[in-house]
Specification:
Layout: H1 5-15, E1 20-24, E2 28-29, H2 69-72, H3 75-83, E3 86-89, E4 96-101, H4 104-113, E5 118-121, E6 126-131, E7 137-141, E8 144-147, E9 153-154, E10 164-165, H5 168-171, H6 204-219, H7 225-240, H8 248-260, H9 265-278
Parallel strand pairs: 6-10
Antiparallel strand pairs: 1-2, 1-3, 3-9, 4-6, 4-8, 5-6, 7-8
Helix pairs in contact: 6-7, 6-8, 7-9
Length: about 280
């Protein structure tokens, strides 16, 4: 009996070293088998890690993805393929990273920010495929997910264009600011250390140049705005935060620049507070 089309496509992908798995309707993986239900197998049902489970069933989301033709055509997998609504693959296992752009606005952002690479049309947006792997992270910005290690993506065709190396701009999307603390933002109107004498930063030229450069750095950010804002705040505070030369006017200029790039007032406050905490101010 001829194999279903989905199995044939899956085997063709596996032959190209792309680990594949079937998806049910709704783009979700098949659930745990009875032997693995409730984490009885020692695996991780939430699939944050593969776990030690060696179950041959199509049972553990991305961790079940395989290139083994014997597994793909086994009775358990063949049953799943016949019920499957789509084919998925493990990008990290294939040595690639997928930037999943969920809508037209996200696609416009990528075209203005990221280097050109192989693209695959999706229902509402595009997948941008880069050569190289990194940690996966959802909602790195509005309408953008990064899928690579420990994640799965739908197979929607080979796409068009040459696959570019994974750029730093994509890696930076997954960079997180330090955990948010409850400490309120400080007004740095007095010295934070008990040094006497005139502050060396209280010259208009030195301080103004530093703030202007920080505002420019934020304004020129073409990607990873969250990370750029935090790192800029950190740089400003590492230079000026302990002597008390920063005023609310300076902080307002920095926050205004960040908000002009799409940051919310809450994120500005959190990034500033996190920078203060990191530096022990």
């Amino acid at each position: 009996m001829q194999q279903p089309t989905t199995i044939r496509r899956a085997l063709a992908l596996a032959a190209r070293s792309v680990p594949v798995l079937p998806l049910r309707a709704g783009k979700v993986p098949f659930g745990n088998c009875p032997n693995c239900a409730g984490n009885a197998c020692g695996g991780r049902p939430n699939m944050k890690t593969a776990g030690p489970c060696q179950c041959p069933d199509v049972c553990h989301a991305w961790a079940a993805a395989t290139t083994d033709p014997n597994t793909l055509t086994s009775p358990a997998w063949e049953t799943a393929w016949r019920r499957a609504a789509a084919i998925a693959y493990h990008p990290g296992g294939a040595g690639v990273t997928v930037v999943d752009l969920d809508d037209a606005a996200a696609v416009d952002w990528a075209r203005a920010t990221l280097p050109a690479t192989r693209t695959v049309p999706t229902t509402r947006g595009e997948h941008w495929i880069y050569r190289g792997t990194m940690p996966s992270s959802n909602a790195v910005r509005p309408g953008v997910d990064v899928k690579s290690l420990m994640a799965y993506a739908r197979w929607l065709g080979p796409g068009t264009g040459a696959t570019a190396p994974l750029p730093d701009a994509v890696r930076a999307l997954a960079v997180k600011s330090p955990p948010i603390t409850r400490r309120a933002p400080q007004r740095l109107s007095v010295p934070l250390r008990g040094h006497g004498g005139e502050c060396p930063h209280r010259t208009p030229t030195y301080l103004e140049r530093g703030i202007a450069m920080a505002v420019q750095r934020i304004g020129e950010a073409r990607g990873a705005v969250h990370a750029t804002v935090y790192r800029t705040f950190l740089a400003v505070l590492s230079t000026h935060g302990r002597c008390g030369c920063l005023t609310d006017t300076h902080v307002t200029r920095l926050f205004t620049a960040a908000q002009a790039k799409g940051e919310t007032p809450r994120h500005c406050t959190d990034a500033w507070t996190n920078a203060l905490t990191t530096l022990g101010l």
